[in-house]
Design a protein that fits this description.
The protein is mainly beta and 987 residues long. The chain has 15 helices and 45 strands.
C-alpha cells in the first residue's frame, strides 16, 4: 500500500512521461502503456503534471493478488484507517450487502466510486454494495481519507474509496481461486474470465469480464470459542435467551405468589406437568454463523472509441446478481401476550390449575371451562421449525455513456450520463406466525381448532423439545418477502484545462476544472402483510413498514491548482490549490422541503528540495441526509445494552423511592420493582425513524503531512507522515441506549429526583407492562426512544505513517512496505448535553466496531527471478472494555465484565479469561507466487499462519452485529489457519 508518489487527480488523462516515474512502492501498479488513459483520485483537474495535496493510499493489483482474497470488503476492513463494517463476517445485522467504513465514522459518511464516478447504492442509507465491484478488472484501489465533498459531492465526509479498473485491456485472462481452512470448512471459490481487444488501428477498445463466486457458511458450532453462548457478565456458558424450550412465561411477582411461585418468571418443568422458576435459557450459538454463505454472478463491459483527434465516445455497463443468506437461531414466541383455554387438550391439569390461580380464577369448573386464561408474556423457541433464514437476492445494473471533447491544448470537456437500479428481494423463512399461535391454542381436541381457517392444527405449547409435531410446525411456519428498489440517475459535465499562463517562477500553467452535476436518488420498500404486522413474525423484530422517497441535487463546482514556484533554489516546488461546490437539494415530500450547501477547500504543497515535500489541505465537507434518514417511518426494533446499564434492573430500585417511581412512570408494574430483568439476550427494544426536516451535516477536515524520499542517501526509500483531523457538526445521529438511559437517570440513578423521574426524558422510555423490562413484543413494548436528530457531533484525529523501501541484491529483490495509523481520538455525542464518548481503544455496546489506537500492516517480499515469497504482518492494537476507562462514571459504564474461570458446558470451561481486555493481536500471512511463463502465474498462501485463536469476551460485550459468537469476528480471525491457491492464465 502506498501513499508516496500517488498523483491525486480525479479524471482520466493521457499518460505522460511525467506520470511514469518509477515508484518506490513495491505494491504500486505498473506504469500504463504509452497513450493509455489513467484514472487517479483527489481532484477534478486532469493535468497529470500537477499533484494534489490530499494524501491517497493505494492498494495495487499486485497487493490484491498477494492477499489472494476473493472479496474487496475483507481487504478494506484490514487496512489501517478503516474499521470493519457490514461484511461477510456479520450475520445477525446484515442487510444483504457489504460496505466500507472510513475512520469509523460510518459507511454513510464515505463514498465508494468506480473509476471516479458514483454507482447505484444498495439501500436507503446510500451505501454502495462492495459485492458489485468487478474484482477481476480492478487495477488498484485508492483510499482518500478526509473530506472530499468539493471534488465528489455530498457524503465524502470521511473520504472516498475509488476502485480503478484496467483500461484498454487486450487479450484474454482466465483466473480461478480456492480457499479452505485447515479444519476443512469455510470453502470459497471464485472464477473470472476477461477478454478484450483493440480495433480500428487502436482507435477503439472493448473489454468484457465475467465472474462467479461462491462461499460456504461457517457455523459457530464448528469452533470451540462459540459452541455455547458465554455470559459476558458471569463467564457461564449457558443459554442467554429466555426464549427457549420448554416454554417460559412471565407474570408479575404478585400473580406468581397466588400459585405459590417465588418469582414471576417461570418455566414449564422438564416433565411438562407444572410451572417452576425459570431454570434453562436457550443456547442459540450453534445455529448462528461466522461467515455468511454467498453466491455471485457478475458481468462488466466497457468500450471507448476515438472518432477523431478531438472526439472520443465511451461507455460502461455492469450487471451483478448476488445472493447472501443470514442464518440465525430458530424462531419462536418472543414475549407475546396470548391466552389459552382451560380445556386446551395439551394443557396438563396441574399446570392449568396454576394458571387459574395466577389469573384469580377459581379452581374446578370455572377453571376447567375458562375460555381465555391470560398469558401476559410467552417465550418458546420453535426449534422444530429449524433456523430462521433470510435470503437476500440483489440484482443490480448500472450503465454509463459519455464523450470527451478536445477544443484545444488548453481546454477539454468530459460529459456523461448514467443510470443504475438495484432490486433486493429479502425472503424470510422459518418464522412462527404469531396470529396462528393464538389460533392453534384455541382448541378443544388435538385435531381440531376452534377456528379452522388456514388448515389450523392445535399446538402443544407446553411440551418438551420435539413436542411440536411436523403438522403443527407446518401450520405455524410462515414465509415473508420484502422488496426493495433503489435507483440513481446522474449527469455530469466537466471542463478541464489551463489558463495558458504561468507564474513567473514556474513552468506549469495554472490549471482549472469547472462543471455541473445532477443526481437523483429514489427508493421504495414493499413488505408483505406478514412483515407489516408488528410481532407477527416471531423474532423478526418490529414491523417493516412500506415507504418510498426520492430527492435530487443540482451542483456547480470549480477547482484550481496554481504552481507558483518550480526548480528554484530552496523552492523545488510551491503549489497552491482551491475548490468550491454549491449544491441545491430538493426533497420529494410534503411541502417540498429543500436545502442547499456550499463546500470548499484550500491547500498547498512545498518542496524546498526534491527529497522533501510538505503538504496540507483544509476542506469544508457536507453530508446530505440520505433517503433512510429523510423518509424511514417510525418503527420498533432491537439494539444492544450491556449488563448493569439499566438502573431499573434487579434490587437497585428498592433502595430509592424516586428511582422506583421513575421505573413505574416508564410502564413497569409496581409489583415488578426489585425483579425487573435485563433485556433478553442483551437486546432492548428501541423506537425511531427518519424525518424530512433533517438537514445536512457539516464537517471541517484538514490534513498536514510531510513526504521524504532521500534518493541520494537511501535510494528506494520513501516515508510519508500525515496528520488528519475531522470534525462533524450537526451530525445526523441517534442516541445510544446507554445515553438514552443516562439522559433520564443521570450519572447516579439512586439519587434521581422526583422531578427527573417525571421528566420527558424519563417518561419517553416505555417498558414491558408485565415484567418492567426493556424487551418484549414490538407490538406492545416501545422500549427506548431513538429518533434521528441534527444534534450530534463527531470528532476524530490521528496520524498515518507510510513507508516503502525497494532494493535489488543481485538476483534477489527486497521490497518492504509499511502502512500504519495511530488514531488519537474518535469522539461521539448524540446531543449537546450527552457525554462526549471516545471509543478509540474501547469496546462496549455503545462502541460499535472495534477501533484500536494503533494498527498497521507490514509486508516483506523477496523476489527470485520469476518467484516471489511474501510475508504480511497485520497488527491490531490492544483494546479494553469501556468500564475500565478513566471516565467510566461519565460514560455510565461502571460494571466490569467477567474475569476468572469460565464454567459450563463449553470446551473452554476451566480456562481463566479476562473479558475486560483484548491484548494486541499479530497475524502473519505467507504467500508464494511464481510466474511459470509469460502466460501462467500460480499463487498459494496461508492466512493466519500461526493459527491464532480469537479473543473471548462473551456474548453481550458489544453490539450484535460485531460481537457474535463470544468474540468480534469482523476484527479478529475466527476461521483459523486458511489455505489459498489461485491460478491466472493470460494470452
Amino acid at each position: 500500500m502506498a501513499l508516496i508518489g500517488s498523483p491525486a487527480l480525479a479524471q482520466t488523462s493521457p499518460l505522460t512521461q511525467e506520470t511514469q516515474q518509477k515508484s518506490d512502492d513495491p505494491n504500486a501498479a505498473p506504469p500504463a502503456a504509452e497513450g493509455q488513459d489513467i484514472v487517479v483520485t483527489g481532484t477534478l483537474i486532469s493535468n497529470p503534471n500537477l499533484v494534489s495535496s490530499t494524501p491517497v493510499n493505494t492498494v495495487s493489483e499486485n497487493e490484491l493478488t498477494l492477499r489472494n482474497v476473493n472479496n474487496v470488503e475483507q481487504i478494506l476492513r484490514e487496512l489501517p484507517g478503516l474499521t470493519p463494517s457490514i461484511g461477510s463476517a456479520v450475520n445477525n445485522g446484515t442487510g444483504g450487502f457489504f460496505t466500507a467504513n472510513l475512520r469509523n465514522l460510518g459507511s454513510q459518511r464515505n463514498l465508494v466510486l468506480l473509476d471516479g464516478d458514483r454507482i447505484v447504492p444498495a439501500a436507503a442509507g446510500g451505501a454502495v454494495d462492495l459485492n458489485n465491484i468487478p474484482t477481476a478488472l480492478v487495477q488498484r484501489v485508492d483510499v482518500l481519507t478526509g473530506g472530499a465533498s468539493t471534488t465528489y459531492g455530498a457524503d465524502a465526509v470521511a473520504g472516498v474509496v475509488n476502485f480503478i479498473t484496467k483500461k484498454n485491456f487486450a487479450g484474454m485472462e482466465a483466473s480461478a481461486s480456492q480457499q479452505i481452512t485447515e479444519r476443512g470448512d469455510s470453502n470459497y471459490f471464485r472464477a473470472d474470465l476477461t477478454v478484450g481487444a483493440n480495433f480500428d488501428d487502436g482507435r477503439g477498445n472493448a473489454v468484457l469480464s465475467l465472474g462467479y463466486q461462491e462461499a460456504d457458511p461457517l457455523y459457530q458450532g464448528a469452533r470451540d470459542i462459540s459452541v455455547y453462548g458465554i455470559g459476558s457478565g458471569n463467564g457461564v456458558a449457558s443459554g442467554s435467551s429466555r426464549t427457549g424450550v420448554p416454554t417460559t412465561l412471565s407474570f408479575t411477582n404478585a400473580q406468581a405468589l397466588r400459585a405459590g411461585l417465588s418469582t414471576g418468571v417461570v418455566q414449564v418443568n422438564p416433565a411438562g406437568t407444572a410451572l417452576v422458576p425459570f431454570y434453562s435459557g436457550f443456547n442459540f450459538n450453534p445455529y448462528n454463523i461466522f461467515a455468511t454463505p454467498f453466491k455471485r454472478y457478475n458481468i462488466f463491459g466497457q468500450a471507448n472509441y476515438e472518432i477523431n483527434d478531438n472526439l472520443e465516445v465511451y461507455t460502461r455497463g455492469m450487471f451483478s446478481k448476488n445472493t447472501i443468506q443470514q442464518i440465525i437461531a430458530p424462531s419462536g414466541i418472543f414475549g407475546e401476550a396470548l391466552t389459552v383455554p382451560g380445556y386446551n387438550p395439551y394443557l396438563p391439569s396441574g399446570l392449568r390449575d396454576q394458571l387459574c390461580l395466577i389469573n384469580n380464577v377459581a379452581l374446578g369448573a370455572a377453571c376447567n371451562t375458562n375460555a381465555a386464561l391470560t398469558l401476559p408474556a410467552v417465550y418458546r423457541r420453535s426449534t422444530e421449525l429449524g433456523p430462521r433464514v433470510s435470503t437476500y437476492t440483489t440484482t443490480m445494473f448500472d450503465y454509463k455513456a459519455g464523450l470527451r471533447l478536445r477544443f484545444s491544448d488548453h481546454l477539454k470537456l468530459d460529459v456523461f450520463g448514467a443510470y443504475g437500479e438495484s432490486d433486493l428481494n429479502q425472503t424470510q423463512s422459518g418464522y412462527v406466525l404469531r396470529s396462528r399461535v393464538q389460533q392453534a391454542l384455541n382448541a378443544t381436541n388435538t385435531t381440531t381448532c376452534t377456528v379452522t381457517t388456514n388448515g389450523c392444527v392445535p399446538l402443544n405449547l407446553f411440551g418438551a423439545q420435539g413436542s411440536i409435531t411436523s403438522d403443527q410446525a407446518n401450520f405455524l411456519n410462515g414465509q415473508s418477502t420484502i422488496q426493495i428498489h433503489t435507483a440513481l440517475s446522474q449527469a455530469k459535465a466537466v471542463f478541464n484545462g489551463d489558463f495558458g499562463t504561468t507564474s513567473p517562477f514556474a513552468s506549469e500553467p495554472i490549471a482549472f476544472a469547472a462543471g455541473a452535476e445532477y443526481r437523483k436518488y429514489s427508493y421504495r420498500r414493499d413488505p408483505d402483510a406478514y412483515a407489516l404486522s408488528p410481532g407477527e413474525l416471531g423474532g423478526a423484530g418490529g414491523a417493516v413498514l412500506p415507504f418510498a422517497g426520492s430527492y435530487d441535487v443540482r451542483e456547480v463546482f470549480g477547482e484550481l491548482i496554481a504552481p507558483l514556484v518550480a526548480d528554484k533554489p530552496f523552492f523545488h516546488s510551491l503549489t497552491l490549490e482551491a475548490g468550491i461546490r454549491y449544491s441545491d437539494y430538493k426533497v420529494q415530500a410534503a411541502n417540498n422541503p429543500s436545502f442547499n450547501a456550499t463546500t470548499y477547500k484550500a491547500g498547498g504543497s512545498f518542496e524546498p528540495v526534491k527529497e522533501i515535500k510538505f503538504r496540507g489541505v483544509y476542506q469544508r465537507a457536507v453530508r446530505a441526509p440520505n433517503i433512510a434518514e429523510l423518509f424511514s417511518p417510525s418503527s420498533t426494533g432491537l439494539d444492544n445494552l450491556s449488563p448493569g446499564l439499566d438502573p431499573c434492573v434487579g434490587a437497585r430500585p428498592l433502595a430509592s423511592a424516586n428511582l422506583a417511581a421513575a421505573c413505574v412512570a416508564q410502564g413497569a408494574p409496581v409489583s415488578a420493582i426489585g425483579t425487573i430483568p435485563e433485556p433478553s439476550a442483551g437486546q432492548p427494544n428501541v423506537t425511531g425513524g427518519g424525518s424530512p426536516s433533517i438537514l445536512p451535516e457539516k464537517a471541517d477536515t484538514y490534513t498536514l503531512g510531510v513526504v521524504v524520499q532521500p534518493r541520494g542517501i537511501v535510494p528506494g526509500l520513501s516515508i510519508a507522515v500525515d496528520y488528519f483531523n475531522i470534525k462533524v457538526k450537526n451530525a445526523i445521529t441517534s442516541a445510544t441506549p446507554a445515553d438514552i438511559l443516562s439522559e433520564c437517570f443521570g450519572t447516579n440513578p439512586s439519587a434521581i429526583t422526583a422531578a427527573q423521574a417525571t421528566s420527558a426524558s424519563c417518561t419517553g422510555i416505555r417498558r414491558n407492562a408485565t415484567n418492567g423490562g426493556l424487551s418484549g413484543s414490538s407490538a406492545t413494548v416501545a422500549g427506548l426512544p431513538q429518533p434521528l436528530t441534527n444534534r450530534g457531533r463527531l470528532r476524530t484525529d490521528g496520524i498515518d505513517l507510510n513507508a516503502n523501501y525497494a532494493r535489488d541484491f543481485g538476483d534477489i529483490g527486497l521490497n518492504l512496505g509499511f502502512q500504519g495509523t495511530w488514531t488519537a481520538h474518535n469522539y461521539f455525542r448524540a446531543s449537546p448535553t450527552a457525554y462526549d464518548r471516545d471509543c478509540v481503544g474501547y469496546y462496549s455496546t455503545s462502541c460499535s466496531s472495534i477501533q484500536p489506537e494503533f494498527q498497521w500492516n507490514q509486508r516483506t517480499s523477496l523476489t527470485f527471478g520469476p518467484a516471489t515469497l511474501s510475508l504480511l504482518w497485520r497488527h491490531i492494537g490492544k483494546v479494553r472494555y469501556e468500564a475500565l476507562a478513566p471516565d467510566a462514571v461519565q460514560r455510565q459504564v461502571t460494571t466490569p465484565l467477567f474475569s476468572g474461570v469460565v464454567t459450563g458446558p463449553t470446551p473452554l470451561a476451566g480456562g481463566t479469561y479476562n473479558f475486560n481486555q483484548i491484548k494486541a493481536y499479530n497475524y502473519l500471512d505467507l504467500t508464494a507466487q511464481i510466474e511459470v511463463n509469460d502466460h501462467l502465474t500460480f499463487t498459494a498462501g496461508v492466512r493466519n499462519l500461526l493459527d491464532k485463536k480469537p479473543p473471548l469476551v462473551g456474548s453481550t460485550a458489544g453490539s450484535t452485529a460485531y460481537n457474535s459468537g463470544n468474540t468480534y469476528p469482523s476484527t479478529y480471525d475466527v476461521l483459523g489457519r486458511l489455505f489459498t491457491v489461485s491460478g491466472k492464465l493470460r494470452f
